[in-house]
Design goal:
Collagenase (Catalytic Domain); four-stranded mixed sheet
């Protein structure tokens, strides 16, 4: 069993080292007992994210994170997925919510990884009361404590 994680940034400043992003994704997978996975985490400009958001989700404008799971998810099947994060949207969210940018980027890495694993949440503000959000925040707290 193996876990491979590839992190890239396309013309954006992330604010979190690639090694740290990888460690957070690994911690999320380990917390979900996933032992066989291949993830790609790409940081994009708002323009690139807006294009993806329109093309794949039919929404206008940039969003903070978009995830795609390509293989069966769960404890026995391999997990394969792509996660796209817009750091500029993350910065705006961090300012709005009064949290450090590094924490918000870490949150989006956990959030995107959970989506690849098949977790879902309701839209808008109801998402912060969802089981997925609560799981995300527990994983995030452990990841931040280990930094």
């Amino acid at each position: 069993m193996s876990v491979s994680i590839y992190v890239s940034a396309r013309d954006v400043r992330v604010g979190l080292a690639s090694a740290r992003v990888e460690a957070i994704a690994r911690a999320t997978l380990a917390g979900e007992r996933v032992r066989n996975a291949m993830l790609s985490i790409t940081f994009l400009s708002n323009t690139a994210m807006a294009r993806m958001n329109a093309r794949h989700l039919g929404h206008k404008g940039a969003t903070d994170v978009i995830s795609f799971g390509f293989a069966g998810s769960g404890r026995t099947s391999p997990v394969v997925g792509d996660i796209y994060i817009a750091p500029a949207v993350a910065r705006a969210n961090a300012l709005e919510n009064g949290v450090p940018i590094r924490e918000e980027i870490a949150r989006l890495v956990v959030h995107g990884t959970l989506h690849v694993l098949g977790y879902e949440h309701p839209a808008a503000h109801a998402r912060t009361n969802s089981a997925m959000w609560k799981r995300q925040e527990r994983i995030l707290a452990r990841a931040l404590a280990s930094a």
